Amino acid sequence: MFALSFLKRLGVVPRAAPATPVADGAPLERTKPAFPLGPPPGARLTPAFVREVGRFAYLFAWPMVNIFNRYTAFKPVFRPCLIGGIVPIAPINHLCMLTDYIDPRQRYVTCPSQDLVYGFGMLELGREPVVVQVPDFGARFWVFQATDIRTDSFADLGSMYGTKPGFYLLAGPEWSGVVPNGITAAFRARTNIGTVIPRVFQEDDREDNARLQPLLQQITAYPLSEFDGRIKTTDWSSVGSIPWVKLGAGEWQWVKPQRFFGLLSEVLAATPPLPGEEALYTLIRSVLAATHADRTLRKALQEAAAEADATLVAPLLEFRSFGIPLKYHWTTVVNSAEFGTDYFTRTAVAHSNTFINRPRETRYFYQDLDRTGARLNGAKRYTLTFRKGELPPVKGFWSLTLYNKEHFFAPNELARYSVGTKSQELGFAADGSLTLYVQHERPSEERIVNWLPAPVEDFSLYLRAYWPEAPIAKGRWTPPPVVPKD
Predict the structure, then answer these.
(1) pLDDT at 42
(2) Least CB-packed of 20, 72, 190, 398 within 10 Å?
């Protein structure tokens, strides 16, 4: 509906099908109107029109350009390794695993978790399908996310699906081969370019990390041509690292406005339109074509990219800018990794906390504000109190993470960035309630076990509910208010 209204606002409307004479008494056949063709080649366009289409195209395609640029950056990689000794990368159609929580210095993906051990790999399923190997995790929570270039998930792999150990196939939209014997199940992506991201729960102690290592060594992905039905193992602790340029405070700039429209034609070609998007693709492509021979239109399109980045995309880093509003100023999303044609939420999530799971796998609750509506800031002290029986209702686990204003971990004396199920020493009150203390200054000694350290500046809170139960899934549960104490 949004795309259609946008097209109508621009004066681009569906062209009626040619009238067909109908004989007396003959039934009138149903016909479908043809999709709009967009401006014909060579038609004169105004800079204002180009700028208007360009602003929308920037918001619409920002997540796909983001993934495409990651794919391009990692294409030369020829062995699994860690960027800067921190971030796992691998050759296309393979993956690389970490062996512990992500390093707090990571700046390649916003809102990382320190409740899980991650892996990462880029897919190009047009080459051939990819086999994902799943070990026996027993009762340990796990989920393997496989996304297309839009960041929509397409595979059901995880604890919540009852997935059994074995081999699973990820295939592209046009693959027509035969699934070989030994493959437990196959999943088809809408696009060839995508990602595969294993997540495995780890308690906050070294003993659990040691128990986890044999399972991590059995997590892998590789092209179908290498499949032989045998379990493959990799000692991920032995992978090397490659240097990377010095990182800033925010996320690495995967999308650069000045290069955006130079890449967009290639990105659209790698992203087949969803049903109903054909007209939108035609319109965007016609504008791109018109700018090739017109310097004034090219300038208008570049201005649109810079303006859209600053006024449409940048504000979406703030969680309160999008999502479903809940009590106490919390917000959530209910279509994560299933965005479809919800272009606004897709881009908001891609910018603020990309690669989040589907709602059945994980529900996310975001908070920028305290109970009074004031911005969370380290100059104040806050509490969150879960009354007895009101911890997040999950079958997996839950966690509350604190992020700085750039949505990364804030350094602190405890090196503590989240608390939750993984925390072995949380202190409950005599009435069974749990109070968490969120503040910059060190609290009294008896409260340190429940302390989530905050930076001196603005920050956000982020509650994850892995494998949520019905009260969360049906919208009946909301986190407690963030109460200011000063």
Answers:
(1) 84
(2) 20
